[in-house]
Amino acid sequence: MQVNPFQLFDAESSTFTYILVSPDNRDAVIIDPVDRHFARDMAHIERLGLTLTHVLETHAHADHVTSAGRLRARTGARACVPSGCDIPPAEVQLVDGDVIRFGEREHIAVMHTPGHTAGSMCYLWRGNLFTGDTLLIDGCGRTDFQSGSAGDLYDSVTGKLFALDDATRVWPGHDYKGQSVSTIGWEKRRNARLAGRSREDFIALMAALDLPRPKLMDVAVPANRNLGLAHSV
Ligand SMILES: [Fe+2]
């Protein structure tokens, strides 16, 4: 049975937050929640009658602050983060190949996909792949800070993500053009940065981007290494 996540958006940082709901018992998992939307996200959880069991981060974000710590305190959910992202307050430090179980029979496969940051991870649930900033629709996350590596990102996407079934739905961590979902097959054939490009070409392309430093980076990264709690009032 195809089950889609709830997709929520932060217009300020163009960040997607996802809520995954077990069809059996309304247990739920949230991925990459944004601090300023804590009340909105709690309202959805309460409106839908959900029990939040896990809060997941795809990486330590540089462009927004997470509400993982506040959601954990409010709901009792467990905070799950990539072990390579230096987020010590989270009780679950994930490694490649881990499986997160929720509801009666839901499981989320944990995939370590370094490149955007060294610790970045993707999560696969019922044919839905949550890619964080590793793979975006027709793009990918930048690789020029936070121990990023264009070569690693190329290897993660082409070696791990593009090896998944073509029909796998791609739910990105951001979108800046009004798109919401894609598929592995589509990105394999059409992604402007990665489709049909050699590793060397991709590294050169990423090195030439010359992007500005994220405005919130000095606030967001230290806060996110504490599950957003340093930021919260
Ligand atoms: Fe990011």
Give the tags.
single chain, alpha/beta, Metallo-beta-lactamase, Chain A, six-stranded mixed beta sheet, 12 strands
Give the second-level CATH assignment, the architecture.
Answer: 4-Layer Sandwich
Number of strand segments: 12
Shape: globular
Number of domains: 1
Description:
- By secondary structure, the protein is α/β, with parallel strands linked by helices.
- It has one domain: Ribonuclease Z/Hydroxyacylglutathione hydrolase-like (Metallo-beta-lactamase, Chain A), CATH 3.60.15.10.
- Helices cover 23% and strands 25% of the residues.
- It has six helices and twelve strands.
- The strands form two sheets. A six-stranded mixed sheet has the order 1-2-3-4-5-6, covered by helices on one side. The chain has a six-stranded mixed sheet with strand order 7-8-9-10-11-12.
- β4, α2 and β5 form a beta-alpha-beta unit.
- α3 packs across α5.
- The mean pLDDT is 96.
- The site of fe (ii) ion has 6 residues, from loops.
Quick overview:
This protein is an alpha/beta fold and 233 residues long. It contains six helices and twelve strands. The chain has a single domain, classed as 4-Layer Sandwich (Metallo-beta-lactamase, Chain A), CATH 3.60.15.10.
Secondary structure elements and pairings:
Layout: E1 6-10, E2 15-21, E3 27-31, H1 38-47, E4 51-56, H2 68-75, E5 78-82, E6 92-94, E7 99-102, E8 106-112, E9 121-125, E10 128-132, H3 150-161, E11 169-172, E12 182-183, H4 184-190, H5 199-207, H6 217-224
Parallel strand pairs: 3-4, 4-5, 5-6, 10-11
Antiparallel strand pairs: 1-2, 2-3, 7-8, 8-9, 9-10, 11-12
This protein binds fe (ii) ion.
